[in-house]
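Regression test attached.
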Amino acid sequence: MKPEVLSKLEILAESAKYDVSCASSGVTRNKTAGGIGNTAGWGICHSFTEDGRCVSLLKIMLTNYCIYDCAYCINRRSNDLKRATFSVDELVELTIGFYRRNYIEGLFLSSGVINTPDYTMERLVRVAKELRVTHRFNGYIHLKSIPGASEELVHEAGLYADRLSVNIEIATEKNLKLLAPEKDHESVFKPMQFIQQGMIENAELRKNAPKLRKFAPAGQSTQLIIGATDENDKAILLTSDMLYNKPGMKRVYYSGYVPVNTYDQRLPALKQPPLVRENRLYQADWLMRFYGFNVNEIVDDRFPNLDLEIDPKLSWALRHPGQFPVDVNTADYSMLLRVPGIGVKSAKTIVMARRFTKLRTYDLKKIGIVMKKAQYFITCLELPIRTVHETSPEYVRKVLTEKKATKKAVDPSQLTLVFPE
Amino acid sequence: MIIFHYDKSFEGLLSVVFDAYLRRSFPEQLLAFNEPEPLFTVTSHTVYTESEKTERVWKSLEKKVEKNTLNMISYAWLSELPGADELIYRYICKTFDSPYSIETNFADKDVLQLRQLAQKVSKEKHRMIEFIRFQKTADDTYFAPIHPDYNVIPLIVTHFKNRYADQEWIIYDTGRNYGMHFNTRKLTEVSFTDTSLFPDGKINEELLADNEQLYQQLWKKYFKAITIKERINPKLHRQHLPKRYWKYLTEKG
């Protein structure tokens, strides 16, 4: 390993960091004789960056040269930044070296588009093939599928990679055209369809030949950028709902737009990325995937945007006080899940524990229910004190959004010193 | 008060259960052999660990509870917390006394506590699987010093045995001063008398393999480069990556 890899690694990691996906779950692969590593099935985060995100894979670009000029992207061709390209051998050696030291679960390889989409895709596939076939690497491989790549290459990629992803980036085609005139939704949805078809065909073939290599066993994922364009949350959530209804779509990631190309007039001037909105979208995403909510219950024409002050579940509960209070000792599991302050784990625990005895407030607290929120929406063995009916949705909202007084009161007349970096 | 003395081993604890049912006297406190007894001791009994007793108790437990619960009991034991033995003892007795399974009766104090303790240990196990960092030494052994809150080495070695089946490695608990060595075929327990070879979790430079420092540097560079500066959130960072682990993390060291 040559020392110049050091500067390449820095440049290409900087270029890759805005892609939020870094999951390593969804596939279990045992060790093989003469091979390296295995895949655990559950995601393993090996570290956390200072922005609080999990580092599970070596998230890196093969190259950050790009022929496209997308307004939201740091690597657009009109940006003046350091560019670099890894050779296949360097990348393979780096991945295995990191893997053996327990730094990573595997590789997440993306790339800027050079020459043509097929030319780029072919090089990505070569890295995956080198790792899987020559080095018998059993760790996780996530490959980005380049928009516009041919079906044959996507198909080959699926045979070596665990997960494939194509980023939609912008939820509506109109806005995508505005920011990235060289792209359209078709070039994104095409490779998605290829991946989907590949998985379905492969499943069919494996019925007769179970030893056949699985095609993208961890499915596919995608990413939407939030806050770079004027879509409301309804448009975004409807897009992700449509995506989740397709077979094999495991995750839709939401990435709050980090103002990277501030000079571009097409982009909004943001002081900082819309982190709260991003968080609310993830919460809504979880409600759709694990809590049995329909997308129309979370956002509709009357409320096209998520409430930034309170989470979407509480927001739904306050809009539907008629559904509450819920008796934790008799209610269905599906209804328990809808109570603010009760998560999947505590709902399951309640269902198990109430077979033995009627639960009280004390038991619920011990089990781990957030009573601060839940108290307004449940009854248990004791009589309810104040539910959302005795008070009112407005009152509950007010109590739950009140900020705790900070310990050190700041004198408002005191000017603050600002230290620029 | 009824007191039992035993050797503070897991086998010993199972023998305690056996003796309690044999004598029909159920202790309220479990002490080590030489621990002084409290003032109001009524009867005290010393338990001798015997494999027949242990096996009988474990076998009847296997019949009564699910495999998952047996795991929980061993996890709780590995927490090595004071009082964990008495908790496990009470849990086992409750299991035997009840005509039906009590495993999910979370309104019961002991049942919930045992689960929560086991979850804590399990969390520490996962953190070790995540945060162990191997340093390659000159003789091609990958060495990882750790200092977990609970004694989790027995729980994590299988994971590493499967993952790094073709490399020689040692995972060493610097707090409990023992470790496991894997020579690509089998695991053996090791204990170093001279821990000055790896002060503060860093192996002395002259013992490292040629390109080890380059790899550590690469990893540090990568870790820094992947951070989005506009989103820095120290509180979230520390919540996911508590400070007590930083000492042994290459990227934070």
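Expected vs. actual: identical. Chain A has two domains: 5-293, 312-401.
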